[in-house]
Design a protein that fits this description.
Elements: E1 21-26, E2 29-34, H1 45-60, E3 66-71, H2 82-87, H3 90-94, E4 127-131, E5 134-136, H4 138-143, E6 148-152, E7 156-158, H5 172-179, H6 182-191, E8 195-196, H7 197-202, E9 208-210, H8 215-227, H9 231-243, H10 249-264, H11 268-277
Parallel strand pairs: 2-3, 3-4, 4-6, 5-7, 6-9
Antiparallel strand pairs: 1-2, 7-8
Helix pairs in contact: 5-6, 9-10
The protein binds ligand LAEZ2JIG.
Residues 1, 6, 39-40, 42-43, 78-83, 90, 93, 107, 109, 111, 114, 134, 136-138, 160-161, 164, 166, 168-170 line the site of ligand LAEZ2JIG.
Subunit structure: Homotrimer; substrate probably binds in elongated tunnels between the subunits.
InterPro entries: ClpP/crotonase-like_dom_sf, Enoyl-CoA_hydra/iso, Enoyl-CoA_hydra_C
Region (Disordered): 88-108
């Protein structure tokens, strides 16, 4: 298995089936749909490669202002493909091949950065998760790399790697305790138990619970609102949230001031008040 493949690599003739991940642009919104419904969208190498391409497209295309990550077939993501892992244990690879950064041998992988799962990479534009059904293990891991999270009322979450003797290498052992209360994060990580959408909302892992089957509609509604806001401001606010995390307030406010000043220097910062005075919707250029 090469360093670009993952457990669950393509298992059937690619030409005779849909790709493991679908990417669709609707105006300023890019929708990324994990597409292995027969395996509850368990991750595959093909899926992760398409995800990486989609993230690059989000960051590089100024026309794309917001992204949505969702799953096909009434599920979000069941994490790594356990059947593929059984056939080819990833750990056997970790002892072979120089790591990509030359620091040890993890099978050619730098396990501190898994861009497809948004570990060691965050998008420069807002990413909204639209969850139906199961978001388990790798599914809840990638969720933590999203910014706004919507789930159908029957959705369930969990970081179940420990249940199978595995480790949440998608970043949860670091990130979950930074996003929800410590004792609940420890509980979820150490028990591997699944939690329902209502509990996920109660603990702040997700922000919205909607009727089953409407998570994508709600995510599109939120995405439209953000896409109509000033893109320069939106991206600067997102970057400030990210770059100031964990810093002392005084150091964080230096980032805040630098990025905020750049927004006020933008043409959009003139268009907004002008539109208000002229009683019309702003036409932001993104510059
Ligand atoms: C560490 C990172 C993440 C690891 C993991 O995610 S471990 C996997 C944990 N997953 C689970 O516990 C979920 C298991 N599934 C369930 O609990 C249930 O199926 C469900 C709740 C999800 C749904 O229940 P349901 O009743 O609706 O449906 P079912 O009937 O149960 O299932 C239907 C159907 O789907 C199949 N199915 C479901 N889940 C899976 C699954 N996870 N795998 C396979 N198949 C699944 C089920 O069998 C049924 O099928 P059927 O035929 O009908 O019986 C890793 C994430 C990415 C890794 C990196 C990738 C790149 C790399 C490559 C390398 O070589 C090694 C290094 C690495 C960087 C690698 C490192 C580790 C990761 C970061």
């Amino acid at each position: 298995m090469s360093a670009t493949e993952a457990p669950g690599a393509a298992d059937s003739d690619i030409s005779s089936r849909e790709p493991h991940c679908l990417v669709e642009q609707r105006g300023h919104v890019l929708i990324v749909t994990l597409n292995r419904p027969e395996a509850r969208n368990a991750l595959s190498g093909e899926m992760m490669a398409i995800m990486n391409e989609a993230w690059d497209r989000v960051d590089n295309d100024p026309e794309i202002r917001v992204a949505i990550l969702t799953g096909a077939g009434g599920a979000f993501c069941a994490g790594a493909d356990l059947k593929a892992m059984n056939a080819a244990p990833p750990g056997d690879k970790f002892e072979q091949g120089e790591r990509s950064d030359g620091k040890g041998n993890d099978g050619g992988w730098d396990l501190s950065r898994l861009p497809a799962l948004l570990k060691g990479r965050r998008l420069t534009k807002p990413l909204i998760a639209a969850v139906e059904g199961a978001a388990i293990a790798g599914g809840t891991e990638i969720l933590q790399g999203t910014d706004i999270r919507v789930a159908g009322e029957s959705a369930k979450f969990g970081v179940s790697e420990a249940k199978w003797g595995l480790f949440p290498l998608g970043g949860s052992a670091v990130r979950l305790v930074r996003q929800i209360p410590y004792t609940i994060a420890a509980d979820i990580l150490l028990t591997g138990r699944h939690i329902k959408a209502a509990e996920a909302k109660e603990i702040g892992l997700i922000g919205y619970v909607v009727p089953d089957g409407t998570a994508l509609d709600k995510a599109l509604e939120i995405a439209e609102t953000i896409a109509n806001n000033g893109p320069v401001a939106v991206q600067a606010i997102l970057r400030t949230i990210r770059d100031s995390e964990g810093l002392h307030e005084e150091e964080a406010f230096r980032i805040d001031a630098e990025l905020g000043a750049a927004v006020f220097k933008s043409a959009d910062a003139k268009e907004g008040p002008r539109a208000f005075a002229e009683k019309r919707a702003p036409k932001f250029s993104g510059s």
